Amino acid sequence: MKALVYRGPGKKEWTEVEKPKVLKPTDAIIRITKTTICGTDLHILKGDVPAVTPGRILGHEGLGIVEDVGEGVFNFKKGDSVLISCITSCGKCTYCKKQLYAHCTDGGWILGHKIDGTQAEYVRIPHADNSLHKIPPGVKDEALLMLSDILPTGFEIGVLSGQVKPGDSVAIIGAGPVGMATLLTAQFYSPAKIILVDIDPSRLLAGQKLGATDLVDSSKVNAVEAIKKMTNGLGVDVAIEAVGVPATFDICQKIIAPGGHIANVGVHGKSVEFHLEDLWIKNITITTGLVSTYSTPMLLETLKSGKVEADKLVTHRFKMSEMIKAYEIFANAGKEQAMKMCISAEI
Q1: Residue 28 pLDDT class (50, 70, 90 cuts)
Q2: What values do phi and psi take at 95, rounded to 5?
Q3: Where are the domains of the chain?
Q4: 3-state SS of 82-125?
Q5: CATH pick for 152-287 out of 3.40.50.720, 3.60.15.10, 3.40.47.10, 3.40.50.850
Q6: How far apart are CA 20 and CA 346, in angstroms?
């Protein structure tokens, strides 16, 4: 089969590799029908994730059809159409029993990280009964693809951890895929104001169409001053960091109102300055986290109802044989006005 293989920092290859097989009774083999690229994959290619070793097949998002199952898989059978969760869960360990599936002792984020991932024609999914979801009829594939990772990430780590409430003022720093997923799901709770901050005018306009009430182009204005002005000098109730760089985390620290929540969603590769000398007195809460995907069943219902149009996050479409080109476009998202890729099998 063909797959996208990591060859070390800055190196990748679309090449022929061995097709996966069932290794444990709880495994399933999935024939991939659609996959995508995540910002985390770009971090891996930069060498920011040393646990990923050369030879690893990348990718942790996808849709597919069950090809084979181990004797310990009871919820799925050959031919089932499935959504692959970015998080693998055994369902039995201490963390899984707390719904902290991200920290499963025999799973968590392992696809495209510690085991071969989904940017391939086939993938092996451990603990299939807990790590796959049956695809219901009538839901667009491109919307479902967003449910592998970014929709639950934005919702769980941004909206729920940030405790967004009706009437709140919310600032989302970063209008990339996860920021946009946060924007979509924040609207479940009817905040009064959703301020979207980015340096890309096209992404800001896209965010406005998806529900942002206010836009801040931080390449042209001082974001902190602009947000303070929009909130009568008070700052926001919830600041959600969705980039993963020191400058954007710093904005969150400067715009948060007393009693507010800073929810960090971005993947940080460098340390940030934490201004506790200013924040200790403000009664704020700061949260971080890796998605556990416990919200996936609920989000799947919202997609079925048509209330969340997650497919609007897809801007570019490719065949699997065009994987390298898809990476090139995604790595230059600003120039290419790209959000999420939909990469489809050619079978």
Answers
A1: very high
A2: -70, -40
A3: 2-149+292-344, 152-287
A4: EEECCCECCCCCHHHHCCCHHHCCCCECCECCCECCCCECEEEE
A5: 3.40.50.720
A6: 19
CA distance 212 to 183: 7
Statement: residue 346 has pLDDT above 90: no
The CA-CA-CA angle for residues 346, 150, 182, to 5°, reads 140
Do residues 40 and 266 lie in contact, with contact meaning Cβ atoms separated by under 8 Å?
Answer: no
Look up the CATH superfamily of 2-149+292-344: Medium-chain alcohol dehydrogenases, catalytic domain (3.90.180.10)
List the structure tokens of 191: 């905040």
Of the CA atoms within 13 Å of residue 297, those in its CB half-sphere come to 3
Residue 11 one-letter amino acid = K
For 150-166, what is each residue's pLDDT tens digit? 999 999 999 999 999 99
Say if residue 73's pLDDT is above 80.
yes
What are 212's two structure tokens?
A: 């942002």
Q: Which of 169, 146, 161 is nearest to 265 (CA)?
A: 161
Burial of 80 (0-12, 13-18, 19+ CB in 10 A): middle
Burial of 262 (0-12, 13-18, 19+ CB in 10 A): buried
Give the dihedral sign, CA 275/191/174/217.
Answer: negative
pLDDT value of position 347: 63
* Per-residue CA distances from 327 to 4, 6, 321, 322 (Å): 10, 12, 12, 9
Task: Tell me the CA distances in angstroms from 229 to 33, 200, 233, 237, 341, one per residue in order.
Answer: 47, 21, 6, 14, 36
